[in-house]
Structure formats: structure tokens, C-alpha cells
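fwd from M.: "can u put these together and see what the complex looks like"

so here's what she sent:
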Amino acid sequence: MAEVYNWQIGREMEYPYGEARPEKQWGAVFDINKCIACQTCTLSCKTTWTHGEGQEHMFWNNVETKPYGSHPIGWDKEILEELGVGEWTEEDGEYVYDGDTIFEANDIDWEDMEPDDDPGNMHGEGIEGYRPDSEDWAYPNLGEDEPAGEKFEADTHISEDEETHPMWFFYLPRLCNHCTFAGCAGGCPVQAVYKREEDGIVLIDEENCEALQECVRACPYGKSIYNPQEGVSQKCVGCYPKVEQGLVPQCFETCLGKIRQHGWVNPPEEADSSNPIDYLVHDAEVALPLYPQLGLEPNVYYIPPINVPTDYLVQMFGPRVEEAKETYQAARRGDEEYRKLRGLLHLMGSTEWRVEEFEVTDEEAIGYDEDGSTVARVPMEEPQYERELYDEDNDAYRLDIT
Amino acid sequence: MTATIHVHRARLYKLASMAFDRPGEEFEEALLSGTFEEQLLESAAALDDEPLEEHAEAVAEAAPTNEDEFDDCYSDWAALFGFEEGGNISQYQIEYSPGTLVTSTDVLADISGFYGAFGLSMDEGNRERVDHLCIQLEFLSHLALQTAYLENEGDETGIEVLTDAQGSFLEDHLGRWTGRFRETLEDEADVEFYRALAVLVDSLVADDTDRFGVEPKQFEETPASPLEGLNDGEGDFRCGTCSATSSGPTAEMPMGNRKGPY
């Protein structure tokens, strides 16, 4: 039985292949609180990678409104319903997921389902999943800006100590998670999906792809997509040509809200506090994986939105949501204890270069690239200038003085 | 291919480009003086292709011959292609291809690349989009003329470059939509001159795709729904007869590097 250790669910789990972590793992942190769904990321990806015939329905990067938006339609609801509700138990501050992952739900003995190159051996069929209908790919912005929650009156006032809002929605930017235990790679009957040793990017080898669409079925995030024109499945390539040059992917670079940080992510025992992604994920623990209970160990991490009820967020990001929100709010308030985190949040998205190391000084937060050269520098306090309210030269009062 | 043929090709493309553009003074003069008709027929005849010649004659027949007819021609153009009367027949390639302008910026870049590679740029003040029919026709006219020049010079390498470029441009761009453009005019326009002109252009392009040995894939009329036909209800195409065969050490995750999978 192939057992791998998935730290996000705090236990060993079954997977079609043995554990094989790459030398480095492509990773990311998104601060959902800052996303405004301008879709610049979506379009920059679209014009870079999926502008061809047969790719009309593809959005390797999309931004959906939660809870009602989803692309492909219902991707998360569908898989959560299939798996049923699983519990998280806590022991000494560590959380363990007791439910089944998509690799375990069908009680497959993966050793009996040994993957090989024979396409007839559909070993991945045992992975819980479904293949979206063509219609499901056709409405990428369904549910956009639709709020959830109770009705509130015109005079409803959300006080400052109110934990969450009575009516709420938030934007969830999504792309391939370049999972450590990728469903697409686990499901492919001809082993055309592989993980790159040097950066952990998951790619489909189009020359070997036989269009069996098992990766489409096995990816619970709906990020492996069939191209009927080319007769192959395709997915986000992590902008590997840019990543190889030390740059961040297109959707990161073009992000207007600077909500995205790209970098390498390590497993917890190898975490490096000077690495921005490791710091956000393992030290500050403000950034959480998307649906960790599915069992793929996804490598895009999210800072949960503070205005949204915790129960919904726990389902989506796991049991550490409450602490993450508190830490994030403390950093934003300016608590001295979280100064380093605040500095890093300022630094987020401020350069097109991959920040591999960062430090926070009295004055600034500074980002360094692989060679230790400074690639970003932001002040801890944004300089603010105030003009005189009265403009003597023109004998007029100014409306905007800060 | 002799230089003469390329000169005639160049002239036909140039005339077609002028004729599909918003009718202006230059075109009016060419029409009313009879030069347009004369050159059109001469060049079409020189290419030694009977259908092409017939199409050229049809254009000549329908072409305006006096000032009143030219004024009508201007109104017809405006009604079909112009913004002032909301003409809804597009003269832009991207309107005939799948996707939208936003998702086709790479196509515009590729077309501009073709122009740039041959040292051509838009006239100062001309803000037309690069995928416009007239500009594409003019570009081919230019390449044909250059080919003729190099034929005379005996520059084999140069001719090869130009031959490749004309073939690729027809295959990737112009050749993919002149058929659709002709059909659109046949369906939606009742102006004989422009209908005949579209037939002539399509036939000229078809001749040239044969000449350069390329097979442009025509844009489909309605791009198919992305996954149409895949989920037809039959669904599962797997045989279902396979069972586990081997058992052994834990399988290894497929890994690779930047050269590809191991």
C-alpha cells in the first residue's frame, strides 16, 4: 500500500505513487482580503497561454465569487458532496483529518492498481472525482458578486468588534495548485502527467497524452482541462519559462491588488523563516491550503477573508482559520509582535522577481532574489503628506489634503 | 514563375485593396478614367486562369463608370462596411475567427510581425487595425512586387524568403477567411460590385494558396462549443474489462525536469 505523508491533514494517506518531493516546490500565497476580482490575472493568463482554438473554455487562472460562483460550475460542491463530511481532531495543537481523501474514498488498494504504461489499466478510476459536463465550463462568471447571508436593514451598522458580516461574499482567485500529491498525475493511465524535479511544477506531456481525460476527472479543483481541437488535456504550466528565469508567473506580475506572492514552499520540518512563503505558511500560519481535506497537498495558500463566517471558511481552508484570521488582524492593527508579518504583507506583490528571502528592518521590508540581490524595498510606514486646508494663492479651500 | 506573373499578382491585390477601401479620390479617378477596368482585366488575363478572368470581368461589369454611379458606390460601401450607417459586414480577420479581440491579441501581433519583418509599417496617421482586409491585400501586393524585383535580380535566397512568407501569411491569416468573407457578402449584401469583388479576391487567394502549396484551414462559421460531442450521453468509452494484473513495489511518481518527463 503506497503511503505518503501529507502534512496538511496531519497524517499518512494513500496515493497511487510513493512519496517523491521535488528539490524545490513552486508555491504561492494569496491574500484574499485584497482581491477585487478585476480579473487582470485571468486575462493576462488567457492572452498568454489559452488564446488558441479549442481553448475558448479554458481559464487556467480564474477568479470566482464565493459562495455562489464556481468554475467549472459546482466543482467544489460536487466533490465535497461525494466525500461527505469528515472531522478534524486536535491533539497538542496538531490537527488530523479523519475523513477520507479522494484517494481513499473508494477503498482502493493502490498496490493492486499498480500504474503502468498500459492505457487499458485505468488505475486512476479509483480516485473519487467527476468529469464536468461541457455546460459546466461555459459560465466562468456565474454567481459573480452575489452575496450570501441574512438580510439586513438600511440602518444595520456593522460595529468594529463584530467578527463577521451578516451579508458577505469574497473573491477566490484560483489556478493549478501544482499539488505535491497531484490528482491529475495520480489518475493519468499513461503517466503523461509529471512533476518537475527542480521546481515541482506539474505538467502534462502533450506528446504522451492520449486524451483519456482521467486527469480532468481526477483533479478536484477542475484545473485540468480537455482541448477538443488538439485532442489533449491541458493545464496551467506555472509560467515555467518565467519561473526558470527567477521571475514570477504572469498572473502574479499583473495582479493590481498585489495580493499574490510567489516563491518556494517547503514541508514544515524544512521550513525556512527567511523564505516569505514558508514564513506565511509555517511561521505565522496565516496562509492556508484550499480544501486540504481532499488530500492533494495543494501549494497555493490563502490568507482567509476576515469578514466571512468562520464555519464556511473552515470547510474551505481547514481548522486553522480562526487563528489565521486573528493573526492577520493583529498584524494589520500594527501589533508589535506581528511586525515582521506586517512587513512581509507590505512586501507582497511588489516585484516581478521571485523573492526568496526577506527581512524587516526598522524602516523597511526588503526582498532578495536567489543571488541575494535586493529586488524589492517597501517602507513600513507609507509616507503621507498633508497640505494646508486653505490655498492662499488661489483663495480657495482644498477638498483633498492628504 | 516569371517576374511578369508576380507583377500582375501585385497589381490585382493592389486593385482589390483599393476597391474594398472606403471609396476615395484615387479610386474614383481610376474608375472613371477606365484604368481600373483596363488593369484589372489585363492582369487577370495574364495569370492564365479562366475562372479568375471571368470573375475579373464580372467585377469590371459591375464597377461604376460615371460620377453618379460612383456616388452610389460610396453609399453602398458605407451601408455595408461603414460605421456611419451601421454597416455590419466586418472587414477584419478577427471577426471571422473564434474568440474575441481581447483573446486574439497574439494574432494581431503575428500580423504586425509579418509587416515589420519586411520593413513595412502603417502610414503615419493611419490608425487602421492590422487585420483589416485592405491592409492584408496591400501587404501581399507588396510582397509579390518584391518577388518580381528579385526574380529580375536573380536573388534566389531572397525569392525563397518571400515565397515562404507569402505562403505562411496566406496559410495563417488571409487564406483562412476570404472564403467566409465572400459567403458573408453573398448572404448579406445585394451590391453586385462588392459581391463580385469578394469572389475575385477569394479566387485570387485560392490560386495563390495552390501556387505556394499551402492549405489554410478555413475558420468555421460557428465555432463549435468546446466540448461538443464529447459528452453525448453515451459517456464512458472505457472497456471496463481491465483488472489488476501486477503487484510489486510501490510505483514511482512520474517525475521530470525542464527537458521533459524522465
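replying to her w this: The domain at 3-327 of chain A is CATH 3.30.70.20 (Alpha-Beta Plaits).
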